[in-house]
Amino acid sequence: MLAHFITATLSQKRPRLVIVVTLLLAWSLMGMAEDQKQPLAPPVITEGEGFIGLDRMITLHGKGLKEWQQQNPQKELQVYVGGILIPDAEIILSKLADDWISVILSRDSTKADSRDAWNRVLCPTLQFLGKDWPKVDVTLGRKGELPLITNVKLEMRVIYRGWLWGWFWSMIALAILLFLMGWKTDLLRDDGACLPEGNKPFSLARTQMAFWLFITIAAYLFIFMVTGDTDTVTESVLGLIGISAATGFAAVMVDAAKNTGARLKRDEFTRISKTLNASNNRTPEEQAKLEEANEEIARLNELLQPSASRGFLWDLVSDGGGISFHRFQIAAWTLIVGIIFVHSVYHSLAMPEISATMLGLMGISGGTYIGFKVPEKTN
Questions:
Q1: 99 with 62: CB under 8 angstroms?
Q2: 127, 234, 270, 376: which sits with the fewest CB atoms below 10 Å from its CB?
Q3: Which domains does the chain have, with CATH numbers?
Q4: What are the pLDDT digits (tens) for 336-353?
């Protein structure tokens, strides 16, 4: 219609009106173009300051960052570390006028997505604990959009080196303390009277308790140093420690019951022996009974007096008759679950969620050990 109007105007020889109409049309088109202005091209992150770590602040710069942010300010800004979204990072826009944006790399331990994101960021870096820290890409992005292109790599520092060495030497000291106390005292040895020569044999149940104590303390402190979390002991780990404690308690009770029964029998045979020894005219039957009582007293004394230790590993997997399968079974499963435990802590920065099946297996192993311990010979 506009073209028809211009043609009719020209046919009527009104050039001035044509010029006016053309100018108005051009002005209208310019206004529409301004209203439909194309969005700015996303900036590129070209500079960065700081290093990556929990609750650390970094600062990122990109030319045109201010205009890009102000073009769509209602959209939430997000930060990416190594291509992984950090969901609880705090964005600070106080330096936005100079195209700088500051970020506090926060972590909310109560949120699963925050924990998982940081675990994915931190765990691959643990392999550099004794080396130079690696550098990883850092960038920004709007929620629901692709992250900005970045040329920035910042150093990832998982933990203070001083804390790491402090933890390492503390665990070495704890291991040495447990070893010396277990070797020099009865901390990890069976109950019973002191031997005239040698030491009492090592207790499998008490050694298992010490094993889980050491691993749990080391894992708890390591996770705390890296993440700052304090509520890291899972229900399954608590159940595992409970099974170990119950096994140790039951083993002590079985040993105490066996010793109590043996002492009562010894006292009874001792009374019989004294009575028969007091008689000067013993019948052949009484003489045979006296000899039987003395033999039982000697056997029970030997039962109540355990033999000396024959070495740490031998004591753990053997009874008086040699290596026993039920002892080997509980020792093997304890070692296997311990390796899985350490692997989980190192690769996921969390104590493992041990399945009910595995806990049941550990409980069955402990129960089998206690069941066979009732008739078990002394070491």
A1: yes
A2: 127
A3: 47-157 (2.60.40), 163-263+309-373 (no CATH)
A4: 989 989 988 888 888 888
Q: Which amino acid is at 192?
A: G
Structure tokens at 353: 């969620």
Residue 105 and residue 118: Cα distance in Å, rounded?
A: 10
> Residues 267, 149: contact at Cβ < 8 Å?
no
**Rg of the chain taking only CA atoms, in angstroms:** 39
Three-state SS across 240-285? HHHHHHHHHHHHHHHHHHHHHHHHHHHHHHHHHHHHHHCCCCCCHH
- Lowest model confidence (mean pLDDT) among 45-54, 67-76, 348-357, 368-377: 368-377
> What amino acid is encoded at 295 in this protein?
E
Contacts of 217 (CB under 8 A, 6+ apart): 171, 174
The DSSP line for 134-185 is PEEEEEEEETTSPPPPB--EEEB--S-HHHHHHHHHHHHHHHHHHHHHHHHS
User: How do beta strands 318-319 and 322-323 pair?
Assistant: antiparallel
Query: Model's pTM, two decimal places?
Result: 0.71
Closest CA to 140 of 152, 131, 132, 129: 152
Sheet strands side by side (includes 84-86): 84-86, 77-81, 135-142, 153-155
